[in-house]
Amino acid sequence: MSKSNQITPDFTEDLVGFMVQSMLTIVRFPKATFAMVPLSKSEERIYGADVRIESISPIYIQFKRSLAYPDYSSAQFIEDRKALKANCSPRTLYFELRAKKPKHKDFQHNILFNLKNKLDKAGKGKAFYTAPLFLNRTAYLLAVHVSSLLSWRPWHWYRHDPFFEQTQNILTQTGSIRFQNIPILREHIVIPPHAKVTTHKHRYSYLESGKEICFHEPTILDNGQNLGQTIYDFLKFRDGQPNTEMINLKESMSLLEDLSENIVSQKNISSNDQIIDRWLHFGEKLWKEYEIYQYMLIKLKNE
């Protein structure tokens, strides 16, 4: 494929992960019974003791960055979209699947797909790709900065709604969490892996609005959600409790064993490890081997 008119973003996938994490973990502030935290060995200082955790629900994210081609490009996937009657104007964003490394048993995409299927079957958690609908680093950083300023106003804590503006309401004293109203999270597309692959030579494409998603084999997919709506649906509260199905930490080993099958060897796990240590080990393995991030909605025990 000719790359002569390819538009490449001037930031990395690591930056995307850092920026999204800074917004997702706002649910830890101010003090609350619930917390959304990254969960791997490198983050174990956050919540490293089983005794503090009552229940959990995992979420797995593969951060991507969007590249683009203008609608007049001769790129094959642009031609594919036109053949499918999908819009390409003024330009189409996309990301590619990652190639399998020699030491990997499977493609990163299939690992994420398997996680999603197992979580869907268990009725707990989520797994998906997310990518910003930005191509410029300065615009991306500015959008995150402005969202942070609008979303976190500690001087309004003594109001019923500490975030003051209704459209920026993240966490209230009644337990209301409205991530769908954070502007920057609306600017990230979410695409769940929809099928297994036998090669990495595929891509997902979409408009700058996040609509008209295609997978290039090619086929048109249902419109994806934005990240804010996805997290809101995952976390939305009723009567101070999240609607998402959570699992008691002590009962979570069967789910962990199912998720980690063919990824983490049980030989590497000490029988003396606490349950949370095993989740931490799994999160570290996913991150180091496949760059899939494990987050966890955690309910803390009342002390």
SS elements, strand count: 14
How many domains in all? Answer: 1
Secondary structure: helix percent: 25-40%
Overall shape: globular
Number of helices: 8
Biggest sheet, in brief? 7 strands, mixed
List segments where confidence is low: pLDDT < 50 over at least 5 consecutive residues.
153-175
Report on this model:
Strand 11 (237-238) and strand 12 form a beta hairpin. The N and C termini lie far apart (59 Å). It contains 8 helices and 14 strands. It is of the alpha+beta class. The protein is globular, with a radius of gyration of 20 Å. The protein has helices spanning 13-24, 76-83, 108-122, 137-151, 183-186, 227-235, 253-260, 275-290, and strands at residues 34-38, 53-63, 67-70, 91-96, 126-132, 188-191, 203-206, 214-215, 219-220, 225-226, 237-238, 241-242, 247-248, 293-300. It has one domain. Helix content is 29%, strand content 20%. The strands form 3 sheets. Strands 1, 2, 5, 6, 10, 13 and 14 form a 7-stranded mixed beta sheet that branches. Strands 3-4-7-8-9 form a 5-stranded antiparallel beta sheet, covered by helices on one side. The longest helix is centred in the last third of the chain and has 16 residues, at 275-290.
Task: Draw up the topology in text.
Layout: H1 13-24, E1 34-38, E2 53-63, E3 67-70, H2 76-83, E4 91-96, H3 108-122, E5 126-132, H4 137-151, H5 183-186, E6 188-191, E7 203-206, E8 214-215, E9 219-220, E10 225-226, H6 227-235, E11 237-238, E12 241-242, E13 247-248, H7 253-260, H8 275-290, E14 293-300
Parallel strand pairs: 2-5
Antiparallel strand pairs: 1-14, 2-13, 2-14, 3-4, 4-7, 5-6, 6-10, 7-8, 8-9, 11-12
